[in-house]
Amino acid sequence: MTLLPQTEINHITTVYLQYLFEASSMADLNLSNYLWFLLLLFPLTFLLLLLYFIVRPRPVRIPIKNRHVFITGGSSGIGLALAHRAASEGARVSILARSVDKLEEAKHAIRLATGIDVSVFAADVRDCDAVWKSVEEAGPIDVLIVNQGVFVPQELEKQGLDEVRFMLDVNLMGSFNVIKAALPGMKKRGNREPASIALMSSQAGQVGIYGYTAYSASKFGLRGLAEALQQEVIADNIHVSLIFPPDTDTPGFEQENKVRPPLTSILAESSGAMKPDEVAKKAFNGIRSGSFIVPCNSEGHLLAIVTAGFSPQRSFLMAFVEVVAAGLLRVAALCFQWNWYGSIEKWHSQNK
Ligand SMILES: NC(=O)c1ccc[n+]([C@@H]2O[C@H](COP(=O)([O-])OP(=O)(O)OC[C@H]3O[C@@H](n4cnc5c(N)ncnc54)[C@H](OP(=O)(O)O)[C@@H]3O)[C@@H](O)[C@H]2O)c1
Hints:
Strands 3-2-1-4-5-6-7 form a seven-stranded parallel beta sheet, with helices on both faces. With about 350 residues, it is an alpha/beta fold. The chain contains eleven helices and seven strands. It has a domain at about 70-315: Rossmann fold (3-Layer(aba) Sandwich). Helix 1 (about 5-55) crosses helix 11, helix 2 packs across helix 9 (about 275-290) and helix 4 runs parallel beside helix 5. Bound molecules: NADP nicotinamide-adenine-dinucleotide phosphate.
């Protein structure tokens, strides 16, 4: 047995103690990281679990195939794209609009593309009796898409009240007329599968924009209608969706673009209009999953989160995102307002 010299023993002891010290401080660090992680994870997990149990109404799937899909404003633009998509998904489709010629043209185009004949109904949504007659003739509806809409941008001071009334009558009162006519048949529908009432709003129905005073009022009105109606029809397994398209390349949009006030164009400037087909696809995905708010692009998703407010939410994961992102997105919204009011101020100072 050999004994180590004292200096060697001292050296080994020092190295060993150093090692122990470093290892314990590493462990301390790992442990404190771990504790912080747990501390953060616990409230988030609790929030997720809470939302999983409380979100209402519960998730639902609304079939489109072999259902009767009734689309107002189905002869042009987004409505026509919706009719195409519904027909190609195997639904029985009815479309309603004023112009018989445009309806026949749409019917012909859908037959050419899908081989399916849609039923057409010529009526003005402002005419209660004509709407009731059309809906009765069409038969019980499973998926009602209230899509008709008119938009004439103008500053309120310059816009005649007749034009204001026109937008409110077609976009808002017209929607009441259609829903009132369709609801009794929808409630009595033979199959008890989930049904849907979808309303075509607009991003101008989430945010007020210069020049859209009357249009925004009509589209914001749809939100109140939809939120309250969902509570009234849930017991009949009817699910309400509110669709929020951005600028979309349609005949209506083309007309609107010609008369937009310059400041509206500056503030509502977008990276480009969506295609009606893309909007129709997003709309049907939203309707199928019974989503209350249906955004159509990434900007729309952010808008949906920042304006979620008291609206129903079926997905606990989306509810989680809404809760966690609310504060930050509010800051982003305030930045937008700062930018918009800056542009308004600049425009007025240059155009005095
Ligand atoms: N395009 C966009 O940029 C955009 C963006 C956001 C939201 N939206 C909304 O999306 C919906 C469709 O817009 P769109 O761009 O597709 O419009 P569009 O191309 O002008 O088509 C409008 C449709 O509504 C019908 N319609 C208009 N007034 C009617 C009335 N009084 N009674 C019955 N039907 C009527 C039209 O047919 P008749 O003229 O023959 O009646 C047509 O079929 C509207 O609610 C609009 O507010 C559009």
